[in-house]
Amino acid sequence: MKIITDTGSLISVKEAQELDIELIPLQVEVKGINYKDYLEISCEEFVNITKTERARTSLPSLGQVMEIYDQYKSGIHICVAKGLSSTYDVAASALRELSSDLILYNSKALVGTQRYLVMLAKRLSHTHSPQEIIQRMDKCLTECQSFLIPVDFNFLKRSGRISPMAASFAGMMGIKPILTFTPGMEKLDKFGAGRTWSQAFDQIIKKMTQNAVGLKHKIYIVHAMNLEIAKNLEERLRKTFGNLDIEYLNFSPVLMALGGPGCVAVQYILKDDEA
């Protein structure tokens, strides 16, 4: 059984090769040129380009996805959340064109939490049926939430991946807006705001406490070239919750096109029972 995913999971080309995962690169367009995530542009190059040029995400081509699907008789494609990307819709169109036993799974997640599902599916792929894997992934998503603190809100506003309520944040000056995403949502939405990073972290940690986040969860801290703030967040989380299972990730260029350079996210997802 083949596991397929996209770079929304922040699985690198090297990791995909080592794990035998089929990786579909998301794309970012700058000045009419499409760049494939990880393969054709680095985060540093993206930051330099977007100092003077506007970037927007673009989709894998239908032909590219069909070509990948045509290679495998069975498997699960764990796709970045429908609504945050139209990649799911492209993949669904590809499946309709082919006679295939591949299963397209809307991860209802992105970056770290999507990555967790992909790694879980890969681990189970040799011993469990697709239906069993999907049940396990669905259970993990029952306790899952993401919080994003963008530095340059204009990136998200241009992307169209925020609700009208969240977009109204863009005119507010001198604050750290906090956006949230949970399974079932199709856009990032307003959660709160703080005048400092510390105040923003306070609100996120309060919500995580209310949701009983703890050792049964996997935590991801994802940042766009802002390691100092990410480490500060980790310190705050450990002070509140103790020895959490925390993993750092870097936003890919395409994902950075959504939140902007400097953005920081924290996510949690329920661990698989047998993890």
Q: Based on DSSP secondary structure assignment, what is the total number of beta strands?
A: 13
Mass-distribution shape: globular
The CATH architecture name of the largest domain reads 3-Layer(aba) Sandwich
Strand order of the largest sheet: 10-9-8-13-11-12
Low-confidence stretches: none
By secondary-structure content and strand pairing, the structural class works out as alpha/beta
- Helix-strand topology string: EHEEEHEHEHEHHEHHEEHEHEHE
Strand content: 15-25%
Please tell me the overall pLDDT: 88
CATH topology of the largest domain: Rossmann fold
How does this structure look, described?
38% of the residues lie in helices and 24% in strands. It is α/β, with parallel strands linked by helices. The protein has 2 domains: 2-140, 3-Layer(aba) Sandwich (Rossmann fold), CATH 3.40.50.10170; 144-270, 2-Layer Sandwich (Hypothetical Protein Tm841, Chain: A,domain 3), CATH 3.30.1180.
